[in-house]
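Table 4 source record.
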Amino acid sequence: MFERFTKDARAVVVDALGHAERAGARTVGEEHLLLALFDREGSRASFALAALGADRRRDSVERALDDARRRGGLSRADSEALAGFGIDVDELVTRVEDGHGAGALASAGRRAGGRRGWFGRVLFAPESKDVLTRSLRIALGRREREIGDHHVLLAVTSRPGVGAEVLADHGVERLALERVLYGTAA
């Protein structure tokens, strides 16, 4: 699949690896792909993010991703679902941090002498693999031969989770993104 990626899409994957390694993460998560998409300049994804005004809100995106990481990677929708069962995620996070220190749940995904993948690299988490697979499906569905960074961005918005939630909070929703990229919502 990787051979079908454009130069920009490959750069997103490589930059996501870099984000994960700098964060000390065991795996490359969807949040690392999202940060790598925000790093791009002069690509279709960067154009779309700029057209929707999200490029100016990177700091806010990073804070939102940090908040989700602090909650152990749970989205607000996950937290609300748990609240339906009487579980207050914020209270739980506070209790865990009181006993184990600030960011205790966030550091659960960090490497603690953890195993690395081939060539000493961190591995891709299932959700980031799903994003990359969805990007291929999106490209094929549009009868496009190559997978661009904009397909990766579309894939993030097409799956439930923290990435789509953070993007939506910053004005990047699937239909708006398709309008910017293709002039219409498909």
